[in-house]
């Protein structure tokens, strides 16, 4: 049987592997992590709402029942297209078909100081680092006698007004104002500042104006200072300097301002487009290598003149499409062009507050929040994860708690 090697057990790679379960192929899935991660809820791990194991699941256990499936815990370092072979941390692996789905990484846009001192959010260790850092700032503020230093420790900057930045700022505010305020009664809550800095003049650009405004108002109600036209030029770990020259003393800067394709893309020797993504044919094949497909955040395709966004539904739909095209290729049938069906955008800004533009339905406030909850529970992989996340959310909702506020060693 031909071997289909899939690199990356994220949204795209996992769907492709599953969709090939009845195909006459051997599927080998490779990932440097042994788990599939539900990245949309990472910010809740960073703000002590959920534990990492509630939003991730071992890849082997997800695909345990699939007879034609195998998994290898390796990092892929290079692809030899001519020899149809991958170089990995555990030696070479040969393929007949190759599906590259390595996802993306945080894009610091060449801002070295931010890469050194800022906090990105892309994987579980990043989320734990943010959680440890925020809680440690509160502990240090308890020990610091200098009022100025205390204010710097309690100033939290989130950079980027996209869904991740908005959700992060809202969740951070709730962690502090609903929960930590009870843990640290001796600290003055008025010393706490949360700023959301956005370089353009709008939050959540994919949403219509009414919903963008609703999101901004909700953030203000949660004491998040939203600043537009605020571009961070430098950060030394103690103060952030904006392009305007303004200096904001802060011990925490969370960088949610951009993503780019995974570093593997740059090693492939293929032309790249914006954000290091690799342009693919309408069938998701790589030009000149019909047995190689690239999907998800790593792939670049335009639809109606716009690049497809780096979001989970694009990766999932591409995963299905690539599996279907491999099956067609095996049967000698022509491959089909990929077409993305946009289901909409959702972002939550804390309890009872969200904005949603789904299937043309534009909602904000409580109804959008309920829709957000339901959709995320449905999408989480594994019954145990769904149950534990639901219990956690219910507990936090009714008791104003965040159970996971532990400072663990890195
Ligand atoms: C904090 C955050 C919040 C987000 N929120 C949303 C949201 O609300 N809605 C939404 O639609 N999208 C959201 N996204 C985007 C979404 O998660 C991505 O678009 C999606 O994960 C892309 O899927 P993928 O399959 O391309 O890659 P991924 O899901 O990122 O998977 C890539 C996999 O490849 C592995 N890998 C990478 N390089 C190698 C290598 N060299 N060797 C071996 N393995 C490798 C990685 O370990 C990873 O498991 C969010 C992303 C982040 C970071």
What report would you give on this structure?
By secondary structure, this protein is α/β, with parallel strands linked by helices. Among the domains are: 3-32 and 74-106 and 259-330, FAD/NAD(P)-binding domain (3-Layer(bba) Sandwich), CATH 3.50.50.60; 112-257, FAD/NAD(P)-binding domain, CATH 3.50.50. The protein is 33% helix and 26% strand. The chain is built from eleven helices and 27 strands. The strands form nine sheets. Strands 5-2-1-9-21-20 form a six-stranded mixed beta sheet, covered by helices on one side. A four-stranded parallel beta sheet has the order 13-12-11-17. A three-stranded antiparallel beta sheet has the order 6-7-8, with no helix packed on it. A hairpin with a 5-residue loop joins strand 25 and strand 26 (354-358). The longest helix is centred in the middle third of the chain and has 21 residues, at 163-183. The two termini are 44 Å apart. The mean pLDDT is 96. Bound molecules: flavin-adenine dinucleotide. Flavin-adenine dinucleotide (FAD) binds at residues 7-13, 30-33, 39-40, 42-43, 75-76, 101-104, 121-122, 163-164, 262, 264, 296-298, 310-313, 315.
């Amino acid at each position: 049987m031909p071997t289909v090697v899939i690199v990356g057990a994220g949204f795209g790679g996992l769907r492709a592997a599953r969709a090939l379960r009845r195909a006459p192929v051997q599927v080998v899935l490779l990932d440097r992590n042994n788990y599939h991660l539900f990245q949309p809820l990472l910010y809740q791990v960073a703000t002590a709402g959920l534990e990492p194991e509630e939003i991730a699941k071992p890849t082997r256990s997800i695909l345990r029942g699939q007879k034609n499936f195998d998994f290898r815990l390796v990092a892929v370092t290079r692809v030899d297209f001519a020899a149809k072979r991958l170089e990995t941390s555990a030696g070479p692996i040969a393929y007949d078909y190759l599906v590259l789905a390595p996802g993306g990484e945080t894009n610091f846009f060449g801002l070295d100081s931010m890469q050194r001192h800022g906090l990105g959010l892309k994987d579980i260790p990043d989320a734990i680092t943010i959680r440890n850092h925020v809680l440690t700032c509160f502990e240090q503020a308890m020990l610091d006698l200098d009022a100025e230093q205390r204010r710097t420790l309690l100033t939290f900057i989130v950079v980027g007004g996209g869904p991740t930045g908005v959700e992060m700022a809202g969740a951070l505010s709730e962690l502090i104002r609903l929960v930590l305020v009870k843990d640290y009664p001796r600290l003055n809550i008025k010393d706490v500042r949360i700023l959301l800095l956005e370089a353009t003049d709008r939050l959540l650009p994919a949403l219509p104006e009414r919903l963008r405004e609703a999101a901004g108002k909700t953030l203000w109600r949660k004491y998040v200072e939203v600043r537009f036209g605020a571009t961070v030029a430098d950060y030394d770990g103690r103060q952030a300097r904006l392009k305007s020259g303004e200096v904001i003393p802060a011990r925490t800067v969370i960088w949610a301002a951009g993503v780019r394709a995974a570093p593997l893309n740059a090693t492939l020797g293929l032309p790249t487009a914006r954000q290091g993504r690799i342009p693919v044919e309408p069938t998701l094949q790589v030009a000149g290598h019909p047995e190689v497909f690239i999907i998800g955040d790593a792939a670049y395709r335009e639809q109606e003149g716009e690049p497809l966004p780096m979001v989970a539904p694009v990766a999932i739909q591409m995963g299905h499409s690539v599996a279907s095209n491999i099956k067609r290729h095996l049967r000698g049938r022509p491959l089909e062009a990929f077409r993305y069906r946009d289901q909409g955008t959702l972002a939550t800004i804390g309890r009872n507050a969200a904005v949603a533009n789904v299937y043309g339905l534009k909602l904000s406030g409580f109804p959008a929040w309920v829709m957000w909850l339901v959709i995320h529970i449905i999408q989480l992989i594994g019954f145990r994860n769904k149950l534990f996340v639901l219990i956690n959310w219910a507990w936090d909702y009714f008791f104003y708690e965040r159970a996971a506020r532990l400072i663990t060693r890195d």
